[in-house]
Amino acid sequence: PSPTATTVMKASARPPEIASGEFDLEQFALAGGLALAFMTVVAVGLGWLMAGRALRPLRAMALTAREISDRSLHRRLAVQGPADEVKDLADTVDGLLDRLEAAFEAQRAFVANASHELRTPLTFERSLLEVTLADTGAGAGTLRTACLRVLDSNRRQERLIAALLTLARGQRGLERRDEVDLSDVAAAVLARERGEGPVVEADLNPARTEGDPRLVERLVANLADNAVRHNTSDGRVRVWTGERGGRPALRVTNTGPVVAPDQVEVLFQPFRRLEPGRTGDGLGLGLSIVAAIAAAHGAELDVRPRAGGGLDVRVSFPAGPSPSPRAASPPPGPAPRRWARGGRGRPGSGG
C-alpha cells in the first residue's frame, strides 16, 4: 500500500473503549427519548383525567343553570364538597338565584295586587252604572249622584296610577342629580298644609344632598302624610332635618297605634296594611314609595316602632357637595303648627 492509504487507515482506526462509549451514549439518548415520550403521554393523560375530574362540577353547574328558568327559580346548584373555589362560586350563584327568586315573587305579587286594586273600583263603577241605568224611574238627581260617585272612584284610580308610576320611577333609579336641601323641601311640604289634625312640630336645619328634587319631595311628603294619617286626633308629629354623623338626614316621628317590631317590614311592602279592613284615602303604597326613593338615592332608611305607639323614621342621605356648616340634633322644636289631614291630589297623597 501507498504511504497515503496507510495514513488514512491509521486515522480511522479507534480504540475499542472509545467505540463502546459512543455506542452507550447513543443507547442512553435513545432510551431517554423513549422515556421522555412515554412520560409525556402519561402526563397528558393524567392531566386530562384530573382536569375532567376538576371541571366535572363546573359542567354540572352549567347544565343546571341552563335548565333554570323563570318557572323553576326554586332550583339551586347545591354543589357539595370541600370549601374550595368551585363551591364558593356555586354558593355565590345560589345566593344570586335566591335574590332573583325573591325579586320575581315580589313582582308577581305586585302585579297581582295592582290588578286587584285597579279591578275593584272598575267593578264598582260598572255595577253602579248598571244599577242606575236599570232603574227606569231614575231622575236627574239619581243620575247625578251616580256620576259623582263614579268620578270620585275615578279620582282614586288616578291617584293609584300616579303612585304606581312614582314607585316605578323610584325603583328605576335617578335620571338627574341636583343639589337639594332637605330643610327647604320639608318647609315647602309643611307650608301646603292647613286645617285641623295632629299637632306638627318642625325643627328644620340645613341638610344639603344631591338627588332628584321631585322624588325627594315625594319622600318627605309621604312620610309626613303617613305620620298624620296613622295618628290620633290629639297626637303629635315631629319633623326634623339636619346633619347626623356627617350626613344630611330627615327624621319623622309620630304618635299613633302600637306597631310590633316584626310588622315594620310589612309596612314597606306594596298594598300591605297592618289593618286589612281599614278604609280611607290610603292606597297602601306610601311607604313603598319612600323605600324605593331612598334606595335610588343611596340613602339609609331606619324605621323603629315607638314604645307608646307610632313610628320613628330616619332617612340618612349621602353628603352633598356643600355640606351644612353645623350639625344639629333634634332639640325641642319651635311653636307647633297645625297640620291638615291629607286631601286628594296633593303630593303627599301617595298612599
UniProtKB/TrEMBL annotation:
Which superkingdom is the protein from? Bacteria
Per its UniProt record, what SMART domains does this chain match?
Answer: HAMP, HATPase_c, HisKA
Q: What is this protein called?
A: histidine kinase
UniProt keywords (A-Z) are:
Kinase, Membrane, Phosphoprotein, Transferase, Transmembrane, Transmembrane helix, Two-component regulatory system
| Key word Iron present | no
- Segments traversing the membrane: 28-51
Domain HAMP intervals: 52-105
Q: Where in the cell is it found?
A: Cell membrane
Report the EC code(s) recorded for this entry.
2.7.13.3
Provide the primary localization. Answer: membrane
> Which organism encodes this protein?
Actinomadura rubrisoli
Q: Which PANTHER family match?
A: SENSOR HISTIDINE KINASE TRCS (PTHR45436:SF5), SENSOR HISTIDINE KINASE YKOH (PTHR45436)
Q: Name one Pfam family in it.
A: HAMP
